[in-house]
Write a structure and sequence with these properties.
Elements (H helix, E strand, L loop, with lengths): L2 H17 L4 H35 L4 H21 L7 H23 L5 H9 L1
Helix pairs in contact: 1-2, 1-3, 1-4, 2-3, 3-4
Length: 128
């Protein structure tokens, strides 16, 4: 649910960076250099992050961290999309943002619910 909002926010940031060059040659140079970086390292880093979050979601000890990463990515992508938006949002635009905001809520709730407890709290929970 997070991926469409994340990709759209990333695209807006990339275009904003490329347009900041001033002329068409700087624009194309920035786009090509970013594309080259993505082909060499970006796709590898994004895949490693995605696999780490998926594996972390299956391990009970690290589930809170994976949920926190999903919530953080959802919050940052929603923040970028909302701040770069022009004027008040219509119902259709909020509807497009709703899966990302839903993943923010679910990720935040899971990271709070799965937060590691101290050894004393675990012992007390085990004796009850």
């Amino acid at each position: 649910m997070l991926l469409p909002n994340l990709l759209l926010a990333w695209g807006f940031l990339l275009l904003g960076h490329a347009i900041g060059g001033g002329n068409i040659f700087e624009f194309l140079d920035r786009l090509l250099s970013t594309a080259w970086w993505l082909l060499t390292w970006g796709i590898l880093a994004a895949t490693a992050l995605l696999v780490a979050m998926m594996v972390g979601g299956f391990l009970p000890r690290w589930r809170w961290l994976a949920a926190f990463c999903v919530a953080f990515l959802s919050l940052s992508s929603a923040g970028v999309l909302i701040t770069l938006g022009a004027g008040p949002y219509t119902f259709g635009q909020w509807l497009f943002l709703s899966p990302g905001l839903l993943s923010l809520g679910i990720g935040g709730w899971l990271s709070f619910a799965e937060w590691p407890r101290t050894a004393i709290e675990r012992d007390q929970a085990g004796t009850q």
